[in-house]
Amino acid sequence: MAIKSLKILVRITFPDETVTRLHDGAGPFLDTNGDLWLGACLTEGLDEIEMAMNGEATTLMLGVSGLAPDGAGLAFDEMEDGNVIGGKVQLLLQGMDAWDQPTDEPEVKFTGKIDNMPMADVSSETGIISSITLEITNRFSVRRLTSGAVLSDVDQRARSAILNAAAAAMGLFDRFCERIAGLSDKAIRWPRFT
After folding, report:
1. What is this structure's pTM?
2. Does pLDDT of 36 surpass 70?
3. CA 87 to CA 67: how far, in whole Å?
């Protein structure tokens, strides 16, 4: 069946295994597995979502608003219980047919962990609007420190072993910092067209 449009899905698995499913749109969405996705508005980070899905982002600031009261209440309860940091967030793309029905299984495009989740409630004439900002990091954030400090190759291997345990179990470590030191001895030679 031909894909006519795409839907952005966000699956959040909190550390206690509670799963929240959101989609960028109004109302609920039922996928091919019978799972219900709550409608939300992805307000911030749309350009960052594009970079994350293209494999270019190391961190993602995802703003979510317009949640139903039960969805916002669940997020608040998880935050109060201290059950947010380290939760798994996945961005998925769902192909839709001409009748806006899912064509196949959604494809995972970005996976990261929640680093912080600030929340805010705004009162309006129509009621209270909750907004949540998910600050998400993924395994590539080991290459950057916000303090401006420089990672050594030993630090890099230790951090990559934590963030990518499956690769570390096979003896594969992120060797970015180790290789950077060797680049100082390299010379860049530009082609000469004369």
Report:
1. 0.66
2. yes
3. 19
